[in-house]
Amino acid sequence: MYGSAPPALRVLTSADAAAYNAFLSEGVLAHPDTLRISPGDIARAPFKTEGGAEGCTFAACADDGTWLGVVTVEREAGREKRRHIAWIYRMYVARSASGRGIGRALLQAALGRARELPGVTKVNLTVAAHNERAVALYESAGFREFAREPDAFRDEVPRTELSMTCVL
To answer: Which residue of 106, 127, 128, 153 could cross-link 36, Cys pair, CB 3.0 to 4.6 Å?
Structure first.
């Protein structure tokens, strides 16, 4: 799992935006078949990292400060009737950190934050259907598939995406 100690997790701030977008771009380049965003998407519209009352972004870091993984969790915005739902976005663990429990630690932090959001009763996410390790991780945390979209995004071939939900 982690080795001797769990990874250090921290909530990102606006000062982390450039590093976050660079890290995520590296992930997209390394795994174009599992993330539905492209480096061009990130360059055109970089993601913000400042958290707030409705969610935040976590980074898992090694002792030397190297980023190992990231995840964002936030309440669904814009629709009053859907404020009971939080979403997990852009979960990515660096290949060098794979298999060490980083994803599980990030997922647990995101679910913990979702539980702190008043009125949130479930968390949704999407995942590439062929990403069996990620699907297994989400299922082990209580997520269940509720929809499947063929040809949801394309890299070299059309990819199927699963929508999953976890009741808190």
So the answer is: 153
Torsion of CA 132, 137, 138, 144, to 10 degrees: 70
The residues facing 70 across adjacent strands are 59, 92
| Residue written as token pair 């071939």 | 157
pLDDT at residue 2 in the model: 52
Q: How far, in Å, are 50, 52, 95 from residue 7 at the CA level?
A: 21, 23, 15
Average pLDDT, the chain: 95
- Retrieve residue 38's tokens: 């492209």
Q: pLDDT band for position 1 (50/70/90)?
A: low
Q: Residue 111: pLDDT above 60? A: yes
pTM of this structure = 0.94
Residue 145 has, within 13 A of its CA and on its CB side, a CA count of 13
| CA-angle at 41, arms to 35 and 44, nearest 5° | 160
Q: Kindly report the three-state secondary structure assignment for every residue of 3-71.
A: CCCCCEEEECCHHHHHHHHHHHHHHHHHCCCCCCCCHHHHHHCCCCCCCECCEEEEEEECCCCCEEEEE
| CA count, 13 A, side-chain hemisphere, 154 | 4
Please tell me the distance from the alpha carbon of residue 25 to that of residue 139, in angstroms, as a whole number: 26
